[in-house]
Amino acid sequence: MDPLPNPAPLASKLRNKLVRYHSIADNEWRVAKKTKDATVWRKQSEEFSGYLYKAQGVVEDVTNRIVDHIRPGPYRLDWDSLMTSMDILETFEENCCVMRYTTAGQLWNIIAPREFVDFSYTTSYEDGLLTCGISLDYGEVRPNFVRGFNHPCGWFCVPLKDSPGHSLLTGYIQTELRGMLPQSAVDTAMSSTLANFYSDLKKALKT
């Protein structure tokens, strides 16, 4: 088990990596799924053998409120149907923490419940916010869970210039689920999960 990292250099490195993902040219992405709420693309990850996913959609709300629903905190468990528990293990400052969370089984439990321990960091980006994270090898794995690993991932949320009550939400996700899984099942689950994330988030913001 690794000790907890020094948060400042990790946060800086993580932010820089997400900003780099955000500047990848459109022609490098291939559409994986399209719904009325979001479009999901993917490309080969540089971090592991799976895919880096990009999801994007317009959400009707102000940036701060949207990001408060996504980052670690009291809202996330209420609306995210995939997340079954969340504990903040360590808080470095208001916008920086280590959390442990668990996810439900997917695809008729072909993908068993997973546990993750992530470093999370929220910072300003242009006129909006970026909330990003990366998994840590920290803490004992609980029984009945496979420990997954999130390579650098995050959500950019910026207000639409011509409609300030709406925000453009763009996510970059590359999750290594680990365990014995067919890659095709993982790819199907990831695309659907990201599309559902937008519809669930929109419902939560309206309540």
UniProtKB/TrEMBL annotation:
Gene3D superfamilies: 3.30.530.20. One of its GO terms (biological process) is cholesterol import. Residues 10-207 form the START domain. Pfam families: START (PF01852). One of its GO terms (molecular function) is cholesterol transfer activity. One of its GO terms (cellular component) is endoplasmic reticulum. InterPro entries: StarD4, START-like_dom_sf, START_lipid-bd_dom. It comes from the Eukaryota. This is STAR4 protein. It comes from Poecile atricapillus (Black-capped chickadee). The gene is Stard4.
